[in-house]
Design goal:
The protein is of the alpha+beta class and 483 residues long. It has helices spanning 63-75, 172-189, 228-247, 293-301, 307-316, 321-328, 331-342, 347-365, 376-387, 393-406, 410-417, 425-438, 440-447, 454-464, 471-482; strands spanning 6-8, 11-24, 83-84, 87-90, 100-103, 113-119, 122-135, 139-141, 150-152, 159-165, 201-210, 220-225, 255-260, 265-271, 281-282, 289-290. The radius of gyration is 30 Å and the shape is elongated.
């Protein structure tokens, strides 16, 4: 990994980073109730009596939420604890109707695992300490009334996975790479949609600084950062702030901070010393979770091919490491490309076409690959026409543009518009003879040794044939004619 240091007046400083990622579990119902979890519903329309903490209501664990957390743990090669327990984390806040959050502290569902990240050719392993399952709180709405705050409990009781890394990251870039990789794994597994803008994945960022080789310094925690870019910006600002404090003779206070994306700065929210004692204790309403081997086997069997394995498979097919990385970065891209390969196209030209032509066109029209107007089967047909010589590269681009506009199949476009490439040697020879006759000066210069003019004759021939001549045949016949 590239070494990251902050240059201070007293020398270099090293940054130490750990992330606690809250990922909303993909499920139709909440962790302990049957209420819906869809994003964007009208306030307080997805709240059961359990979520609202009505007296006498008892929580019942949602099997699917547990299953998704176990599958996530398996995807990062983590230890799965067959016996785990829910605890009550006690604190009082307006968006927490029960006065406590049901979480897991002492006996989490998932134990230690790891995630590999890349920086150029280097690979670094980031340790994951645990994944525990907990319920989300509601949401305070401060902009609905001039003097009052309202509470929306739609999010109350939604299942979260808290994925806690070890303090193994040493730069904003490493933290960004870890978060992107974790998000990709979650989306491949299907346990979280990774939509940071909607808040279904957010990170608490722990940062400290130290002189290289010295013990860890005092850390701060910046809460609820909701994009990879903001996480990196928060780390950079907070690390520089801490260095400035320490070099001016101050001390770092262990505290909770908030990140302001408009200014790129953090500010103090509350001191850890002043924080409440959460008085954790086992939840008396919930029995411990006990997982049997059949359940674990079903979870493992349901896992898809994960990003690293898929990338290695693509590279084994001859696809460049760069293209393989691009094609596996997002699960929708990988699924689209797999469908293209299943149609029988050659992997290498297919990967070049997708990362070049298709991505370029999608960027131009502002669509993601899941909204692509070109389906994998249509792309396979287009690439097959190039492979069998029906279309040249330039003709294929013309056909592709028409496909984008009309949605028609490439074969139909080729027939209707007469865009088929010709390899008719007689027709090409006649055009070459005409081109040479019309350009005697260039012909004389070429034969006098100016071989760069060969490209000129190729261009003139292709132009005269409206780009429909087979370039290889043109090259071969031109060389004979010029000889």
């Amino acid at each position: 990994m590239n070494e990251f240091r902050i240059k201070g007046a007293t020398g270099d400083w090293e940054v130490v980073i750990g992330l606690e990622v809250h990922a909303q579990v993909t499920s139709q119902a909440k962790l302990f109730s049957g209420a819906a979890t869809a994003f964007g519903a009208e306030p307080n329309t997805q709240v059961s009596l359990v979520d609202a903490a009505m007296p006498g209501m008892l929580p019942v664990p949602n099997r699917e939420c547990i299953r998704q957390a176990v599958r996530t743990g398996m995807a990062i090669d983590a230890a799965i604890n067959k016996w785990s327990r829910f605890d009550r984390k006690n604190y009082f806040y307006a968006d927490l109707p029960q006065g406590y959050q049901i979480s897991q502290l002492y006996h989490p569902l998932v134990g230690e695992g790891s995630i590999e990240i890349e920086d150029g050719d280097a690979i670094k392993t980031i340790g994951v300490e645990r994944i525990h399952v907990e319920q989300d709180a509601g949401k305070l709405m401060h902009d609905q009334h001039p003097t009052r705050s309202y509470v929306d409990l739609n999010r109350s009781g939604v299942a979260l996975m808290e994925i806690v890394s070890r303090p193994d990251m040493r730069s904003p870039a490493e933290a960004g790479a870890y978060l992107r990789k974790l998000r990709a794994i979650l989306r491949y597994v299907g346990s979280c949609d990774g939509n940071m803008e909607e808040g279904s994945m957010r990170a608490d960022v722990n940062v400290s600084v130290r002189k290289p080789g010295e013990p860890f310094g005092t850390r701060t925690e910046t809460k609820n950062v909701n994009s990879v870019r903001f996480v990196m910006a928060a780390i950079e600002h907070e690390a520089n702030r801490q260095v400035d404090v320490l070099e001016s003779g101050g001390t770092i206070v262990q505290e909770t901070r908030l990140f302001n994306p408009d200014t790129g700065t953090t500010r103090s929210m509350r001191s850890k010393e002043d924080a409440h004692d959460y008085r954790y204790f086992p939840d008396p309403d919930l029995l411990p979770l006990e997982l049997d081997d059949a359940f674990l086997e079903e979870c493992r069997a349901s896992l898809p091919e994960l990003p690293d394995a898929k990338r290695k498979r693509y590279e084994a097919l001859g696809i460049t490491a760069y293209n393989a990385g691009v094609l596996t970065a997002e699960v929708e891209t990988a699924r689209w490309f797999d469908a293209l390969l299943e149609a029988g196209v050659a992997p290498v030209p297919a990967s070049n076409w997708v990362t070049g032509e298709l991505f370029g066109a999608l960027n131009r029209i502002g669509k993601g690959i899941e909204e692509s107007p070109i389906l994998p089967g249509q792309a396979a047909e287009l690439l097959a026409l190039v492979a069998d010589g029906t279309l040249s590269g330039s003709l294929a681009k013309q056909v592709f543009e028409v496909m984008l506009e009309t949605g028609d199949a490439p074969g139909k476009i080729v027939e209707e518009r007469g865009l088929k490439q010709t390899s008719d040697t007689g027709a090409i020879e006649a055009v070459i003879a005409d081109v040479l006759a019309k350009n005697p000066n260039q012909l004389e210069q070429y034969r006098a040794g100016k071989e760069a003019l060969f490209g000129f004759f190729v261009g003139q021939t292709m132009k005269a044939m409206a780009g429909k001549a087979n370039p290889q045949v043109v090259n071969d016949l031109l060389r004979k004619a010029l000889a």
